[in-house]
Amino acid sequence: MKIFIPRIPDHSTRIGLWQFIESGCNSRIRNPFTKRPVVVSCEIIVIEEQCGVKERHGLVEIKPDSAAESVVRGLHGKSFKGKRGAVRLYIDRKAKK
Fold this sequence. Notes:
Elements: E1 2-5, H1 14-27, E2 38-48, E3 54-63, H2 65-75, E4 79-80, E5 83-84, E6 88-89
Antiparallel strand pairs: 1-3, 1-6, 2-3, 4-5
Helix pairs in contact: 1-2
């Protein structure tokens, strides 16, 4: 399952984003019978508006899917690179057509 982190700071790196998500994977108290969350992929998407403004967003894939929801709950509202972040499940709007 993918996690979306909107409007991350300009100085963010892929490694920094990975470490932020890993901290959420490690900090959650888990049932001993469930699998530990694992970061499968991590990317920073840069979208440039026509007026020249750039937005940076993080997109991270976590397995298993049930663990991704737990990571979102643990990281939502936490500070990333000095900015309080919104972390949510990613919805692929292209796939729903």
